[in-house]
Amino acid sequence: MALDKAPTWQPWLQPEFDQPYMQSLKAFLQAEKDAHKVIFPHSSNWFHALEATPLDQVKVVIIGQDPYHQPGQAHGLCFSVKPGVRVPPSLVNIYKELNTDLGITPASHGFLESWAQQGVLLLNAVLTVEQSNANAHQGKGWEQFTDRVIQLVNEQCEHVVFMLWGSYAQKKGARIDQSRHLVLKSPHPSPLSAHRGFFGCRHFSQANQWLQEQGREAINWQLPEEV
């Protein structure tokens, strides 16, 4: 495990790899591989959220729970799936809210790379999962690592919007300095809870308005059709 492809994060996060919790996580993942369990995403994408969105360019943080656990879906960005994969239900609801909020046409795909490249850190709390076994890697150490990622954004960045959808994300973002950053909270966009207040939250327009008020460029939430 290394952050060679995430140079802006590396000086801050590389020391984490020497910590006992990370050594324990590495041993767990190796044991899973040795037992021929299939892990998603591929190891080359475990840190893709950090590689796609440099620390000094973070404008928005969206926190997910753990990766999609079916073949071909996960590629290291929360809520995002690879091109050609059916758009998952929570992302369908995100697209519905974007349409209501900003009039944005839902994309035919679920590949959110263009958001990441504009400064939207799409961070799962847990960065790996076993095939067909949701939450299988919870409590193994990833949460401590991603808490450190959030802490870094909180301390090192200015004027970042944190979108905390659901109680899990809200707990994870509980220590964000709200005098420096904008914290937006709503229920999770999953079909089970979206109707309880995710629909109508208008987080995307609020984020863009606040970023512009801070002198930062707004996010173009319209995904390109060609990916």
UniProtKB/TrEMBL annotation:
Residue ranges annotated for the Uracil-DNA glycosylase-like domain, each copy included: 51-211
Active site, renumbered: 66 (proton acceptor)
EC main group: hydrolase
Superkingdom assignment: Bacteria
Molecular function via GO: uracil DNA N-glycosylase activity
Localization, UniProt: Cytoplasm
EC assignment: 3.2.2.27
One Pfam family in the UniProt entry: UDG
A GO CC term assigned to this protein in UniProt: cytoplasm
UniProt keyword annotations, A-Z: Cytoplasm, DNA damage, DNA repair, Hydrolase
One example of a Gene Ontology biological process annotation: base-excision repair, AP site formation via deaminated base removal
Catalysed conversion reaction: Hydrolyzes single-stranded DNA or mismatched double-stranded DNA and polynucleotides, releasing free uracil
General function of this protein: Excises uracil residues from the DNA which can arise as a result of misincorporation of dUMP residues by DNA polymerase or due to deamination of cytosine.
HAMAP family: UDG
Family: Belongs to the uracil-DNA glycosylase (UDG) superfamily. UNG family.
Protein name: Uracil-DNA glycosylase
Annotated source species: Marinobacterium stanieri
